[in-house]
Specification:
The structure is a single chain. The chain is of the alpha+beta class. Helices cover 17% and strands 22% of the residues. The radius of gyration is 22 Å and the shape is elongated.
Length: 223
């Protein structure tokens, strides 16, 4: 099973780092089909690589042969950090910017990465393969309920977060309130009637700040 650097890094922010109080909060859950998920008990994320790479393409130099695991594997954050460090940041071979998770002939679950010079190999214990909450109970899938979709770019969200941090308390823990408009246009009436998919098409008001009061508007992204 091949898991790319980008896939691992996309879910790492949802972990609690190296918190040892609840083991699964500081780990990434890797499914045999390539899906990865992470949670810190306040946010849950799942991600998939749209262009998964094949085990047969992974270089085997100085590495034991493995087969793909048949059940999920829990990758601790410290091991992920070592895997990422072992991958070349720039390479003409995309497969090197990925880790491989597999089962050895002795039945050990291993995670490994290589730059073709010095491989990094980590054994995953049996306990690390099972301790994961039933996230299907809380995950909301697209289309499960009626919603109004607000689409903001990552760059815009980063700017809003910076504004909130500067206008907030010393520890930077400050909320951003988004006021979703109720469109009075014909397009919105079509949304109400269920004719079209609801989307925000006009400016959204935002407020933030505890030491400095900030208010403003932001334009959603248009498809």
């Amino acid at each position: 099973m091949i898991i790319s650097r980008a896939l691992l890094k996309s879910v790492l922010p949802a972990t609690s780092g190296e918190d040892n109080t609840r083991y699964y909060l500081s780990a990434v859950h890797v499914h045999p089909d390539g899906m990865v998920e992470a949670t810190d008990a306040t946010i849950l994320v799942r991600a998939r690589d749209p262009y998964p790479q094949l085990d047969d393409d992974y270089p085997t130099k100085d590495l034991p042969a493995v087969t793909s695991p048949e059940k999920p594997v829990l990758l601790p954050v410290p091991i992920i950090s070592k895997l990422l460090a072992a991958m070349p940041k720039k390479s003409t071979f995309p497969i090197l910017r990925a880790a491989q998770i597999g089962v050895t002939a002795e039945g050990k679950i291993q995670a490994r990465a290589t730059d073709l010079d010095v491989p990094m190999i980590a054994d995953i214990t049996e306990a690390q393969s099972h301790q994961w909450p039933m996230t299907d109970r809380v995950m909301i899938k697209d289309g499960d309920r009626p919603v109004v979709k607000l689409i903001l770019s990552a760059a815009m969200l980063t700017r809003l977060a910076k504004i909130a941090t500067e206008a907030g308390t010393r520890n930077g823990d400050n909320a951003v309130t988004l006021e979703i408009p109720e469109e009075s246009t014909a397009a919105y009436r079509q949304v109400i009637k269920g004719i079209v998919q609801p989307e925000i098409i006009s400016a959204v008001r935002f407020t933030t700040g505890s030491t400095i009061k900030v208010e403003g508007v932001v334009m959603p992204c248009h498809r």
